Amino acid sequence: MDILKIDKLTHEEWLNLFAAAYKHNNHTGRWVFASRRADPRKNELGAEAVIIVPILRDPGQPARLVALKHYRVPIGDYVYELPAGLIEDGEAIEETIRRELLEETGLELVKIREVSPPLHSSSGLTDEAASIAFVDARRTEGGKQQLDGSEDIEICLLDHEQACSLGQQRVRMDGRLWLILRHYRDLGRLE
Q1: φ, ψ dihedrals at 101, nearest 5°
Q2: One CATH from 2.30.30.110, 3.40.630.40, 3.90.79.10, 1.20.1250.20 for 49-187
């Protein structure tokens, strides 16, 4: 497969559309895709975003998975998902995790257990890559969400039984959250 050229179709702040002209086996075609990158031709192996799988550990309480019910304009409804955010230029992924966890949930990062390599979830539509971070979190005194004006987010604290139940419901849900819920169901506990 040869990419012959890529044209930028839109000029938005966070996400743009591009059209790639390609040639493969004497066939030429056009593929429209979304990218957060200024130049998608720079095909670097790095993440633009991080998805956070936080486990809240309050003393004397069962571990709880922190999920979100987030209004998403393209869906026109609330979607269950995990906290997530874009990695800012020059920012270490650990700092993005700390910042986004605090902003979206009001919780403080205690420990990063594991961070995946950059993963693609919809490579037919976008070149975006995101890492998944499994973390421990705790409440902070007076900890409140620090949402911007466009965010409408409800925090959901799910013990193991509630996490298993949510995974069985027919609701709008991000695919990565569903996989995490299934993982914890099969594991038999939140870890």
Answers
A1: -60, -45
A2: 3.90.79.10
